[in-house]
Write a structure and sequence with these properties.
10 strands, 6-stranded mixed β-sheet, alpha/beta, 4-stranded antiparallel β-sheet, binds adenosine-5'-diphosphate, about 240 residues
């Protein structure tokens, strides 16, 4: 994984009278899990979306190991939704709360689509890796299933595989367990914990306090578009 450096980030939606993110400075260290907490509407989702290149920014910079991937200058030039560059699509993996699998593709087809189309990898090669990833998340036997045949937890695990096959430098998770039954939450959390153990840089928005406490190396508390607290000692954050 790489270090994600956010400096003086300002994000304001076109129809809003004030920024939703106001002067956010934050480092997400390589190989660590940073959990972003905060009340609904505090800007957590927006923060992830700016890092993923899904929203232009109006001020500041976002960099991966010193390389600028978004800046307020380019964000100003464009209005509305920015096209996510294929470069960022492979470098920054993102999994959303609502499973966004392609309904007319099988599990294997969903996972191999981006590597074959965007990266022009040979299909057999992409399929081999997809099967390996499905094995890791306990879904090898579901490779030919259609999304509607899967449970919510299974769909989220497929969505994680779909991001991982592009070998992202950082993974972003936006409330990926929010729409799941408790037993499915466990399946998805187990996969995320395993990725953390392997040292992938991750930034996670969650309301699951027990999960945050179990997985976080670093906690960032967001409120009203500002960082109100940062802690490198997650255990202490939760016990204080
Ligand atoms: P959180 O993830 O913490 O709930 P969000 O980032 O989703 O917060 O939203 C922060 C604020 O920005 C909210 O007031 C929300 O209504 C607003 N917002 C989110 N997305 C948009 C958008 N596309 N256009 C305008 N306002 C938005
Ligand atoms: P989350 O908190 O996970 O972002 P929301 O329900 O706030 O979930 O947002 C869902 C979608 O609606 C997002 O794509 C967000 O950008 C959009 N959205 C949220 N608030 C607004 C708003 N005030 N105006 C326009 N779009 C919004």
């Amino acid at each position: 994984g790489k270090n994600l450096e956010i400096s003086h980030l300002v994000k304001q939606y076109a129809n809003a009278d004030r920024p939703v993110l106001d002067d956010i400075t934050l480092t997400v260290p390589a190989g660590k899990v940073t959990v972003v907490l905060g009340p609904s509407g505090s800007g957590k989702s927006t923060l992830l979306r700016t890092v993923a290149g899904l929203e232009p920014i109006q001020g500041g910079e976002i960099a991966l190991d010193g390389e600028v991937i978004a800046s307020g200058k380019s964000g100003n030039a464009k209005s509305g939704r920015q096209q996510r560059s294929s470069d960022l699509r492979t470098r920054v993996g993102m999994v959303f709360q609502s499973y966004d699998l392609f309904p007319n593709k099988t599990v294997l087809g969903n996972i191999t689509l981006a590597p074959t189309i965007v990266q022009k990898r040979p299909k057999a090669d992409a399929e081999r890796e997809a099967l390996e990833l499905l094995g890791r998340v306990g879904l090898a036997d579901r490779k030919d299933a259609w999304p509607h045949e899967l449970s919510g937890g299974q769909r989220q695990r497929v969505a994680i595989c779909r991001a991982l096959i592009l070998h992202p430098e950082i993974m972003l998770f936006d409330e990926v367990t929010a729409a799941l039954d408790p037993e499915m939450v466990r399946e998805v959390l187990d996969v995320i914990v395993e990725l953390a153990d392997q040292g992938l840089t991750m930034m996670i928005v969650t309301h699951e306090m027990a999960f945050a406490r179990a997985i976080a190396d670093r906690i960032v508390l967001l409120d009203g578009g500002h960082i109100v607290e940062q802690s490198d000692d997650a255990e202490r954050f939760f016990t204080d």
